[in-house]
Amino acid sequence: MAIGVAMPVLIPLMIFGGFFMNAEQIPPYFIWIKYISWFNYGNEALIINQWKGVGPIECKMDDPTLCYEDGSDVIAKLSFDEDNMGFDIGLLFVLLVGYRFLGYLLLLSKTYRKKVKSSK
Q1: Residue-wise pLDDT tens for the chain (120 aa)?
Q2: pTM (2 decimals)?
Q3: Among 13, 87, 100, CA closest to 48
Q4: Does residue 25 fall inside a structural domain?
Q5: DSSP reduced 3-state for 84
Q6: Counted domains in the chain
Q7: Residue 118 domain-assigned?
Q8: What does the alpha-carbon distance between residue 107 and residue 90 come to, in Å, rounded to a whole number?
Q9: Residue 73 falls within a domain, yes or no?
Q10: How far apart, in Å, do the first and last CA atoms of the chain sit?
Q11: In 28-84, which ranges are continuous DSSP H helix?
């Protein structure tokens, strides 16, 4: 059952987490998915780690609008903030504990037996 439920849950988290769609392109009625997605925080932390402090980027394309000037420009065009690295790491731990606790509660609720009324 978990495999059948995993894909419909994980695909929206990946799409709205920044892998396939820029944060500015997310429709307002789906923005809440971004905030519960661990992909969002992990992706932002990865992008910041990779691009923060990178100097000028050489561009060999004819259209300069498709080029990035430096690492800060890459981070900004992906709608991320360089100062969010600690926040992202902290929220990844909070989501890790929170989702595990939620899973524990759901499993615990499945183990309780319903009381059967005795017929006298």
Answers
A1: 778 888 898 888 888 888 788 878 888 898 898 889 999 999 999 999 999 988 888 888 777 777 888 889 989 888 889 999 999 999 999 999 999 999 999 889 888 876 666 666
A2: 0.78
A3: 87
A4: yes
A5: helix
A6: 1
A7: no
A8: 26
A9: yes
A10: 39
A11: 31-36, 38-51, 71-77
